[in-house]
Amino acid sequence: MAGVIGGILLALGEAWGVAALLGGAGLVLWHARPVLLALVLLGGAAGWASAHAVLTRPNALTPWFGAQVTVQGEWDGQFLTLRDPPARVTLAPKPTQGPGQLRVSGRLLAPEGRRTPGGFDQAAWFRAQGGLLSVTPGGALVGARVREFQPQGGLRGWFRRGLTTGLTERQGALMQAIELGDRGDISREQFSEGEAVRDAFARAGLAHLMALSGQNVAILTGALILLLTRLGAAPAWRFGLPVLLLGPYLLLVQSSASITRAVLMGGAVLLALALGRGRPDPLGVVALAALACLLLYPLWLTDVGFQLSFLAVLALTQSERVAGRLPERWPRWLRLGLAATLLAETGTLPVIAGTFGQVPLVGLPANLLAGAIMALLVPLGFLAGLLGPLALPLNVVNGVLADALLLVARTFGQAPVLTWGQVGMGGVLAYGAAVLAGWLWLLGRVRAPAALGTWLACLLLTTLPGRLHPAREVVFLDVGQGDSTLIRLPHLTVLVDAGGSVGSDYDVGAHTVVPTLRALGVRKLDVLVATHADTDHIEGAASVLRQLPVGEVWIGQRKTDDPVLTAVLLAAQERRVPVREVRRGDQVSSDGATLTVLWPAGTAWSTEDNDNSVALRLESRGWRAAFLGDLADLTEEWLGAGPLDLLKAAHHGSRHSTGTALLAQTTPADTVISVGRNTYGHPHPDVLTRLAQAHSQAWRTDQLGTIRWPLP
Fold it and tell me: How many CA atoms are closer than 13 Å to the CA of 557, on its beta-carbon side?
């Protein structure tokens, strides 16, 4: 297995592949069986060949990138699978219709890489979904409009109707998520404005319940084995029949790394029991499942779901040891439940912290309660799916259980979470040292005080870098055709706007801005500036207010008839965040820097929102920058911004902003333009020409992604 991992990493150009191969060789030497070295090398060659085949496969959609197209295929809630050409694409926005045959039109675009710290790397995720037996997703269809729809038929259609018949939309969405792994409908559900159901599950440490995994396989096969045992079936039937049903089950549900791993491992264990060979070695079964997964889908190695699934299972192999360390007077089921939950959370900690930027603090009690509900809901839900439309009486019970699970998620989802930045090499080493200390304690090699001291020391070491070298920078977030700028000082953090997506259901604040802030280690904002009532600037601010502590909100004009600004003000009111109407001359100072409001004057308001934008100037130890919102060139001349080192161009490079008079007055050496794909002609050629004539270097987020600018 180490050889296969090493080969895949080398095919990806990762030097860590050498370390994996050396690790495999080290295991061979440890067991003094040199003949196994050939298997390590064979695994390396197989892993490299498999990954190379997937990586070099041509993309059939490349000739149509950028074109307006109409395509037809099978929609499974995640990908649209086309027949001609043979390809898979994602749809944005996702159709409100369920899985089935779709005819849809939109603009076909190539997948994008990661453009913000902690952001979603669509291109890498696409690559990870392809394998030797399936086509790698090749593009994204944006502005997708459904022209024709035919609901899913066959066994899946029957099963889906059984899961949802007689249930509310939210209950049905939850049942499809936990039984089929289809999270399309549940992603649209909200407990209240700004309180998404999936976010509540994540904050409560229950996100794994909506990703099919070993829990589903264990509950379903366990229920079937119990039934067969009660019927007096012989061991060959008792364990053999579940093995035969695992294959059709995998075809029924939405394929993923976690459920494939669970089916392979469950099948190996059940087959061994059916043949009378007893339970196989846990590590051997884990390695066997990983080997089968990665040889067929080599880039699953980079998939978060694969990593979480296998790390959790590896940690769970120590459940008996940890349970043995707990007081014997406690019931065994409680000790095993506590041990399993603690181990799963500990084993997956670096991936969860580094990927999602937060660690749930209430995962232990939430999982104990949710686990009891799932033990009933999973088999009853599966039975309802088999009954199809006849499941109405059974779904009365399933509806109650689904509501109970939603209540657990909502209740524990209100608890605070531990925010986390990106996990670097130091964090990985500290985590490894802490795990080693815990492992030696379980083996009885070190005493509890020594292990606890090691954990505390590792925790302290991971907090030191940020305290010894606090950030001083301006970060221009890539939020597409929108605006969001972060000003970071040791004791002052200001977010100017939070992006937005005009005519789309994509929440830029929740899915781009907040993850970026968490990845950067931003745990709170002292000031959130909503420059003016434009969707592309402040729509995401409501989600930022709901997900991060904010000291106060700055606004210019308090419009009462703008729905986007009203949503921001309502979110501030919900979180009891004071709102301040700033005027020219208002300022805040910290750590040798001063942030001053240049506009609005507040004496009169324009009928154009852009002209009422809040404009700011930042001065830090002689260095000066200005952030102008969407101000037009006529207003720019009244600012008196003075000489600048850096200019944040107004209105995404519109030809009506960043005028000649402003550039002559400010003479900025550098100009940042926040812009994305658009039909407005931003940045306009006239603006780029004016910047060139003023000898100001233009930096564009559509070309460079997020731009980080150090402050003196």
Answer: 19
Domains by residue range for the chain, with CATH: 1-56 (no CATH), 208-419 (no CATH), 427-465 (no CATH), 473-710 (3.60.15.10)
* Terminal alpha carbon distance of the chain: 49
Number of H helices, E strands in the chain: 28, 23
Neighbours of 158 (CB within 10 A): 15
Residue 2: CB atoms within 10 Å: 22
3-state secondary structure 550-607: EEEEEECCCCCCCHHHHHHHHHHHHCCCCEEECCCCCEEEECCEEEEEEECCCCCCCC
Residue listed under structure tokens 């524990």: 412
545: nearest Cα among 497, 473, 584, 592: 497
At residue 411's C-alpha, the angle toward residues 407 and 412, to 5°, is 120
Whether residue 600 is preceded by a cis peptide bond, meaning omega within 30 degrees of 0, is yes
**pTM attached to this predicted model:** 0.85
**26-32 long-range contacts, CB within 8 A, separation 24+:** 27/2
Query: How many CB atoms neighbour CB 596 within 10 A?
Result: 18
Is residue 289 a contact partner of residue 263, using CB atoms and an 8 Å limit?
Answer: no
Do strands 579-581 and 80-82 pair parallel, antiparallel, or not at all (unpaired)?
unpaired
pLDDT along the chain (712 residues), means of 10: 96 93 92 89 96 94 93 91 91 87 93 87 91 91 91 88 94 93 86 84 89 87 92 90 92 86 91 87 91 94 91 91 89 89 89 86 90 94 94 95 96 87 82 90 88 89 78 95 95 96 84 92 94 94 94 93 93 95 95 95 85 95 95 87 94 93 94 91 94 96 94 94
With a CB cutoff of 8 Å and minimum separation 6, the contacts of 359 are 349, 352, 353, 417, 418, 420
Distance CA 434, CA 496 (A): 39
In angstroms and rounded to an integer, the radius of gyration of the C-alpha atoms of the chain is 28
